[in-house]
Amino acid sequence: MLSKKIGIDLGTSTVLVYVKGEGVVVNEPALMATDGKGGRVLAIGRAASQLVGRGGKARTVRPVRDGNGVDYGVAGAMLQHLIGRIVGRQRIFRPDVMLSVGPMVTGVERRAVLEATMRAGAKTAYLIDKPMAAAIGAKVAVSSTDGIVVVNLGAGSTEMALIVLGEIVAIQSIPTGGDALDRAIEASLARTRGVRLKPGDAERLKLEVGSAITPVNEASIELNGDRDASGAPLRVSSSEVQAAMREPLEAIVAGLQRLLAQVPEARRTAVNRNGLVLSGGGAQLPGMGQFLTARVGIPARVASDPQSCVAVGTGMALDNLQVVRRGQHYIT
After folding, report:
1. First vs last Cα of the chain: how many Å apart?
2. What is the rounded distance in angstroms from the CA atom of residue 162 to the CA atom of residue 172?
3. Label partner for 92 (CA 20 to 30 A): which of 25, 104, 216, 231?
């Protein structure tokens, strides 16, 4: 088969592209740099972040805002770049493209994304909700599973869905994700230590010493160049970071509880048995599965390679189109 099959997970902070037979071939910032007037694209992805880091008049834009809002002009330009990078100059055999979207994206917005994908060079364009793609990428047999909950912890939002026999039966989307955890760390240290963190420091703290549960072994990290209110080098402990993230983590729990309240009585036993599957970058926060299990009483497991499983599932869904065509949008 000469036409490629491409799955794209266009997220708030990261874009991942899966090509059948090759795996994930793109994992870069979901960022586009334009000239000062926004009329000319200068760079996309990692190159865009490097360009802006050098200063100058370049400005950056993102195709997705807070997990669901889509800027179609930016998305279209980025899709054209990504598809062109994978297909190359040979455009005779145009690819089949599956794109994951937030579940709260409207029908009008879905149509606009599909049309942007077709203009970018796709032969056929399909959309799939992120939780369904995450389930497929996590190797859940969605068409035969009698009830399972998927929690996709992205940067701008967290999407949760109850999937029963290949269909999304209930869904919740909240504007709380990895970026909210970073902001909570920044706000907490500003309040308790009187410091303003440099860009990227909060994420570093989250990744290196953060945990969703009380750390078993206390650790700390010193931030280069940062000082506390007394002028001493700023050293932050894992307990401080865990406490700082408590509010957004509780918001995720509240959203999950709202979803579980919608589980039909006939499916409760199945959900309790099959549990929760966690995907997305936020699923990599240490203790996240234990935290959710303790708060909602249902076993949770983190998908293998959680950050990539939406992109992988999006690509895999191209070989399982009956799932996509049932309740999804597509253009041929």
Report:
1. 18
2. 9
3. 25
Tokens of 259: 């979803």
Residue-wise pLDDT tens for the chain (332 aa)?
568 899 999 888 899 999 999 999 999 998 888 886 666 888 888 888 887 666 667 788 888 776 566 777 788 888 888 888 888 766 678 899 999 988 877 888 888 889 989 988 899 999 999 999 999 999 999 999 999 999 999 999 999 999 999 999 999 999 999 999 999 999 999 999 888 898 889 999 999 999 999 988 899 999 876 666 666 788 999 999 999 999 999 999 999 999 999 999 999 999 999 999 999 999 999 999 999 999 999 999 999 999 999 999 999 998 877 665 554 556 65
Q: Give dist(CA 200, CA 205) in Å, integer.
A: 9
Q: Could you tell me where in the chain the CATH 3.30.420.40 domains are found? A: 5-131+310-331, 134-176+249-306
Q: What angle do CA 267, 272, 277 make, to 5 degrees?
A: 105
Contact status, residue 330 vs residue 124, Cβ threshold 8 Å:
yes
Which CATH number, 3.30.413.10, 3.30.420.40, 3.40.718.10, 3.20.20.10, labels domain 134-176+249-306?
A: 3.30.420.40
Domain at 5-131+310-331, CATH from 3.40.50.150, 3.30.420.40, 3.40.50.720, 3.30.70.20: 3.30.420.40
Portions of the chain given CATH number 3.90.640.10: 178-246
Q: Which among 26, 24, 123 has a CA at the least distance from the CA of 78? A: 26
Inter-residue contact 177 to 158 (CB < 8 Å): yes
Non-local (6+) Cβ contacts of 307 within 8 A are 14, 16, 280, 281, 283, 284
Helix axes of 309-316 and 130-137: crossing angle, nearest 10 degrees: 90
- For tokens 């071939």, the residue is 25
Domain covering 178-246: architecture:
Alpha-Beta Complex (3.90)
How many other C-beta atoms are found inside a 10 Å radius of the C-beta of residue 3?
A: 14
